[in-house]
Each structure stands twice: as C-alpha cells, then as structure tokens.
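Crash report, auto-generated. Payload:
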Amino acid sequence: MFYYYDPTYIFVIIAVIITMIVQGYMTSTFSKYERVESKSGLTASEACRVILDRSNITNVSIGHVSGNLTDHYAPTKKELNLSDTTYNSRSIAAIGVAAHEAGHAIQDNTNMILLSIQMRLVPVVNFASRLSIPVFFIGFILGILDMIQFGIILFSATLVYQLITLPIEFNASGNAIRTLREYNIMDESELYAVKKVLTAAALTYVAAAASTVLQILRFVILMNGRSRRR
Ligand SMILES: [Zn+2]
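Recovered output after restart:
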C-alpha cells in the first residue's frame, strides 16, 4: 500500500557495495598473512602476554572466545578474548590482531578518555538506534515532520558512536605496532605486514561509518520529499 519507487535506495546499494569491497579486501589480506608464520615462534596469546607484561598490565586476563575474528577486549571485565583461530596461531595476522587487542588494554590502562566515552555511549546508542527506524517510518507514513526529524536525530547517534570508535581503533593499532617493535616481537618486514592487516581491519570501521552517513543522507532526502508533498 505504501510502496512506491524510491530512488534514494541507490544510497543503500552504494553502502552495500562499499562494505563488500572492504570486507573482501580484509578477508584477502588476512588469509594472505594467516599463512605466514612469525619469526618469533610465539603464538598470538603468548605475544599478547609479553605485550601486557612489558606494559605493566597485570590485571588483564587472556581468554578464549569461539568464532572467527571475534577477538575483543572487554574493559569492564578486564578480559582480553582471542578467538579460537587467533589464540594458538603463530601467524603474522594472528599476532597482529592480538597486539591490537592488547592495544585496547593499554588504552584502558592509561584511562584513554575516548574509550570511557565510548563505553558510556553503548546503551544510549543501542536504545536510540532501535527506536530510530520505527519513529522515522511512522512519522513518514503519517506525514509528521517533527517525528521524521526526531527519527533522523536518533539514527545519528550511531554515527556519533562510529566516529568516536575510529580514533580508538587507529590508536589501538598504533599501540600494536609500537609494542611489537619495542618489545622485539617482530622485525620491520613483519611489521609492514601487520600494518596492512590492521589497516584492512580498520577500513571496515570506516566503511560502517560511511554507510551510516549514506543512510542519513537518504533519510534527509526522503524527509524533504515528504514535506514537499504535504
Ligand atoms: Zn579494536
């Protein structure tokens, strides 16, 4: 009943294409360096332990988590979880990922302000993003401009979160490269490969933010079209 041709759907298609290209690049970069063993002979979890110990971080435990590329650092629990594929791997890619997560633990240990802002934003952003689409579309169908605008503002909370995440991710990767170098875990040629792996991973965050921008643009164009038709 409410279906009509929506030319702004092109924004969604562009976002999907960007995401697919970046995902493809990340997957190929990862699989390339997953096959290259690090000269140190350390597993990713061992390298992670070295970085934490040498950084005087004693309150963080290193654990296992199932899945592929599910590696993450949980600041509230002081847990650094490495995925099954990463934990026991001696590959350059795995050690790079583990060092990146250790980079987040370092941020937490040094009380990085952005990290605590990000943590506090999680529940707010989850709530706002869940509410945004229904608010937008009900406002759209009923032709209530204020409601449409409120939906877009709620949706923008996701972008704010993503924009805060970007410098955190780049900084964690910077910590990874610095510590792998300083603690003599990798040489320069290996670090070059780690940089490529971590840059590919960071690009997925950039793509996610770009997709959100495109979605907001789409909503704004839809809103303008709707208010003209009134
Ligand atoms: Zn990260």
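Post-recovery validation: The chain has a mean pLDDT of 94.
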